[in-house]
Amino acid sequence: MNSSKTEIKLELSPQSRFDLIDVNRSLQENFGDVLNGYRRVLYYSYHTTAGYFEQQLCRRLLNNRDRLASWVASFQRLFPPQADYRHDQLQLRSELSEEQRRTEPLNGDSHLTFIGSGLTNCVTYRNHGGKPVYFVDLDGMYGDTRRRRQTTLLGYDRETVASEFRLQVPVSNHPIDSVNLKDLRLGFFDQLHHLLDRHQIVRGRVDLALQPDETHAGLTVNEYETLLMRHDLREVLRNPFRFMAEKGRHMLGNPRAIPGKAINYAKYDLVRVVNDFLDAVGLSGSLVERVVDKFLAVPASRFLWMKRSVSLLVSDPEGKGRGRIVDGTYQSPILVQWKRARARTRDLQVRLVRFD
Q: How many CA atoms lie within 13 A of 128 on its CB side?
């Protein structure tokens, strides 16, 4: 008979910069079938360039490794490595020491692929025994250095919503903006920890979701680094093809726009991107031209797979009987908007979930 919950932390070793690692296989090899008897398993990544896709998307892609790789590849074409990412201009990163600048990976493309493709830090799957669940690593190696990756798996049977409330997040009047929900000035995490104590939630989950009437906005969990959030992501929201255009030198003298004569070049490159989408979901290639035209006509909100909800793991890693939000060193939940809010706030629905 299983206990009501079992939590396991795994060390993962990527074999290349982009890697798909079956964590259920790694779990089986290291711990056996300890989670097989549970109805649900939560998977948590501590990283901002490696995570998981929701089970529903994986199901649409038949949980097939090649189709998942094709899905990611379509976004990697949008965000190629070594494009002009401000995040990678390390001389501008005042928070880094000289020693850190010598070793810091150039991975702006991986951050943007994570955000744009719908990867997330925390997912909950209905448990189907030993079927593959893939940890998607976009930045597993830097040069000859293999990154050290960690993930937590938590098996449980039932969950109960202990508290649910609406949170108003202040945003600026800028049409394109991002807000770090972990910012101490907001006091949001202090409020969450107070509620976790009040409801005696030791292991569970915090779910954050935009209200249905909140449009032109999304959520992600990533690194709130100024150049990445205030420059690179902003450029993407203005023009999703900006970095793809810049990397392809045949495109534009000014890669910030795709006007006039360059539109055919954009369509040529975009056909390759859309083909990856169609291959991944198994649709007919005859749809390409129609989809390409539509993609060029719509804003980033419809092109990028921006999420409207994210989750945070609640656990007790120190064994003190107090649940705390678990996060990686550089992880922050981030609210992103690409059009002005009606008022200078955005409404989130917050749920505190206890695992039973």
A: 8
301-323 pLDDT, tens digit each = 455 788 999 999 999 988 889 99
Q: How far is CA 50 from the centre of its chain?
A: 8
pTM recorded for the entire structure: 0.86
The three-class DSSP label of residue 330 is coil
Is pLDDT above 70 for 21? yes
Q: What angle do CA 266, 270, 272 make, to 5 degrees?
A: 135
Q: What digits encode the pLDDT tens for the residues 212-248?
A: 999 989 999 999 999 999 999 998 888 777 887 776 5
**Which residue in this structure is represented by tokens 């998607």?**
136
pLDDT digits (tens, 9 = 90+) for 244-286: 777 654 343 444 443 333 334 344 444 455 555 556 655 444 4
H helices present in the chain, as ranges: 23-31, 55-60, 65-78, 98-103, 108-117, 188-198, 226-227, 233-238, 242-247, 263-281, 288-297, 300-303
Q: What is the chain's alpha carbon radius of gyration, rounded to the nearest angstrom?
A: 21
CB neighbours of residue 162 within 10 Å? 16
Q: Of 340, 335, 354, 339, nearest to 186 (Cα)? A: 335
- Taking alpha carbons only, the member of 353, 330, 347, 354 closest to residue 114 is 330
CA dist 249 and 253 (Å) reads 8
Residue whose tokens read 């600026």? 172
- What are the angstrom distances between the C-alpha of 294 and each of 271, 288, 300? 12, 10, 12
CA distances to 32, 64, 117, 130, 205 from 27, rounded to whole Å, are 7, 19, 26, 9, 22
d(CA 126, CA 235): 37
Q: How far apart are CA 39 and CA 156, in angstroms?
A: 6
